[in-house]
Amino acid sequence: MSLELQHVRVMRGSFSLEADFSLQSGKVLVILGPSGCGKTTLLRAIAGLERIQRGQIILDGVRIDRLPTEKRHIGFVFQDLALFEQMRVKDNIGYSLKVHHEDKQQIQEKTALLARRFKIEHLLNRYPSELSGGERQRVAFARSLASSPSLMLLDEPLSALDAPLRREMRRFIRLQLAEGHLTAIHVTHDVEEAVDLADEIIVMRDGAVVGYGTMEELEQRPASGWLARFMNLGLVLPVTNIVAGRASDTLEVETHAGTVLSIPNRASLDISRLSKDKTCLYVPLAATDISENHSDRNIRARILRKIHSASHISKLVLMIAGIENYYFEFPLGSHRTEILQEGKEIEISVDTERCQLLAEEPPALDDVVQPVSG
Hints:
Rossmann fold; 9 helices; 374 residues; 2 domains; alpha+beta; 6-stranded mixed β-sheet
């Protein structure tokens, strides 16, 4: 089932949220952003739990924003899961079917089917208080699917789990959504979780959509330095000066890191619209590498931490020279890790052809370029 939000506005006191996007049938959209940006409010508005002041919400060609929650055919997994503690697992799963007065035999059959699908048959007679965190997640997910919803909404359902179980449940949820060909929106503030689950990602800040696209599209064209930094897409360096390069199609960009880089003018914003104190240079991760050769055009950094994953080093935390309080996570590939000691000064080479000038702050909502649905 496809979903479309047309110029939706939600007001809550002094807080205002605006959204305008569409989601294709069978796709998983992740809404990503810091706490308080409006992610849950947007989800609640789609579900009918929050009143919208403007716009339309259309699900599979039918306008639903004027319908009560129970008639929108939407499954909702809440952050706290909201299981009925006084009911056994089987009654939790079959609750929506009972509310809709389905036949008792059909309720039993569907409950058994979902229990098998989610591997919780042995839990059907238990109460939620007797379940582990992962078991509670599976029960909540099964309950949300019992009424065969047209759209699934998941409001940070994994936030209370420890890291290993969270990773396991991410894989499980993605598999269930894919196998069921379900259309879903998942809310999180965790970038790794967003990348793991999403077909498309919306990034929100202060009630506005400030980025929208696939992970690849966001990496290639982030809408702002803030977005690139929030998602750790690459180096984001404050700019101190921009002048025309020696070649007509280049710009010479000086950064707070003390480096002057010659970048293609075609990859930049119109410099007449930019002021140097509100502009940054974006260097995608794929355009960086640790260099063993000194160059004035390299970016100097110091290794603060080596972060290990299992038996190998997976990334470095770097402090960039000349920029206060900016710490950058640099993933490692085939580098000789024995020479990369904490405290060591290193140089990062840059493929300037892939660099871009960006506005530091996100643009207004109307300026965000949205991808064309295929």
